[in-house]
Amino acid sequence: MLQFLMKGGTPLKGEVVIGGAKNAALGILAAAIMTDEPVVLENLPDVSDINVMLRAISDIGASVERIDRHTVKITAGTIHTQRVLFDYVRNIRASYYLIGALLGKYKYAEVALPGGCAIGARPIDQHRKGFHAIGAVTEVTHEGALLARAENLTGHHIFMDVVSVGATINTMLAAVLAEGKTVIESAAKEPHVVDVANLLNRMGARIKGAGTDVIRIHGVEKLHGTTYPIVPDQIEAGTFMMAAAATNGDVLIRNVIPKHLEVISAKLLEMGCRVEEYDDAVRVIGCPHKSYVNVKTRPYPGYPTDMQPQTATVLALADGISMITENIFENRFGYVAELNKMGADITVCEKGDVATITGVSSFKGAAVEAPDLRAGAALIIAGLCAEGYTSVSEIKYVLRGYEDFDAKLRGLGAQIAMVTDEQEILDFIQKTGTMEEAAELFPFLAEK
Ligand code: EPZ
Question: What is the pLDDT of residue 435?
Answer without folding.
Answer: 87
